[in-house]
Amino acid sequence: MNHKEEYSAEYIASILKDTKSIAMVGASPDPTKFSYGVLRVLHEQGFKMYPVNPKPEVEEIRGIRVYNSLAEIDGPVDMVEVFRRSEALLGITQEAIDIGAKILWAQIGVVDDAAAKLAEDAGMRVVMDRCVKIELFRPFWKPRLNQTI
User: Fold this and answer.
1) Pick from 57, 69, 70, 24: which is nearest to 43 by CA?
2) What's the pTM?
3) Which among 5, 34, 90, 118 has the fewest CB atoms less than 10 Å away?
4) What does each of the 149 residues of the chain score in pLDDT, given as a tens digit?
């Protein structure tokens, strides 16, 4: 799949429909950070969230236990959402494969073709350079704003 092209609405919708749990790598306890806002919205929408932050002093975000790594998560993970630099994506992808995640989602600005290939070769679905929060609400924008998606 060419991750520089637009994803089909069906592809994104199927990923969001199939996702029940999300491990957010790079989750921040700082309410001014974008990852915090995305975590808040996804949690409020009913997704089981597993914030991942390697700082030992970060034990919880919004009352949700924080994990130091993907390997520490003690439940099933459907999606690994990445709020880290593109250079970190390949290593995170291998960790996502190791825990049996089904989807790799890289936030806006996060792209690595080698990571996408690694994930796809392992049977994962991949989205890069997109915000899951924006995509989650995109179907609601179309009728309200009369725009094409």
Assistant:
1) 24
2) 0.90
3) 5
4) 888 888 998 999 999 999 999 999 999 999 999 999 999 999 999 999 999 999 999 999 999 999 999 999 999 999 999 999 999 999 999 999 999 999 999 999 999 999 999 999 999 999 999 999 999 887 644 444 444 54
Which ranges constitute the DSSP H helices of the chain? 9-18, 34-44, 89-98, 113-121, 132-145
The first and second tokens of residue 27, run together, are 């989750």
CA 56 to chain centre: 22
Report the distance separating Cα 14 and Cα 37, nearest Å.
23
Q: CB-hemisphere CA count at 13 Å for 86?
A: 11
Q: Which residues, including other chains, have CB under 8 Å from residue 118's CB and lie 6 or more apart?
A: 90, 93, 94, 97
The conformational region for residue 51 under phi > 0 = left, psi -120 to 50 = alpha, else beta, is beta
| Domains of the chain with CATH codes | 9-145 (3.40.50.720)
Residues contacting 86, CB < 8 A, separation 6+ = 106, 109, 110, 111, 112
